[in-house]
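Sample 1 of the test manifest.
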Amino acid sequence: MKGTFCILLLLLLAIIAPAQRRTVTSEEREQKKQQHQEAQRRDSTRRSQYLRVRLPVVFKFQVASGFALMNNNQSPLKVHSSVGSGAELQLGFKMAKHICLGAGINIMNYFVDNLALQRSVKTLFEQADYTTTVTSYKNVSFTRGNLFFYSSYWSYRPKSVLECYAKLAMTHSGYTIDYLVFSRKNDSHYSELNSLHSQAAFSGMMPSVGANYALRLAPIIYLTLTGEYGYSITTQKH
Amino acid sequence: MQINKNSEGGGFYKAMMLPTPAHFVQLNIGMMLRPFNTIRPGEMKYDAETVKRANEKNK
């Protein structure tokens, strides 16, 4: 009888013990999984906070328009003011509450007053007793690209930010002149053909100052309006 | 560059100065994005003073 009881007890233990072990393992596994998920969540939060603290970045994308005044003093050709349009992209870093440093690119295309330029070309080749005609020409447009660095001061308003900035740009700009002018002497068969062809390329620097009004539309989105004046210091290559 | 040719077979060429760009006035309209503007209250890894300082800087 005692022997039978012992055998039954052993059998019972053999059945129950593995089941108990399985339950413990499952709970432990669940706990480990939860701990792992918690650790991952903490890491993720830490990373995002790190970014938020370390990268106070400001992006700006702007459609640009404006006009350029040319320096005509040294040239017999006269290019007057030209109206242009383009785009500007900026990446800034807030260094302090009121200070921002950044860089960007600006590309503009200006439409030159071709009639005024044509008139000045004709005037250049006009002589007494000659009939002068501009026989062919190519419309001139003036293209400019900038790589710039800027520093700005931010003045805060309740719903907006007023930013005053100074820029220093490395510029590359150019245009192509292509004219053919025919002159014929009135009282003889003597004639002259003048060809004007030049690819003007200007590399240089352009310091500029400006102000930017940013109206807050949402906590991270602002509508910006900017006005800027720059003076270009260039060298000319023929 | 000016190239001159005449009907008697003569001619010359000479370099010519061209107008240079000098003054630029520009008006822009666009968008400014500040995706890392503030630290949210739920994300408090840093102590309160650090969060306050960072938010003040990013304001």
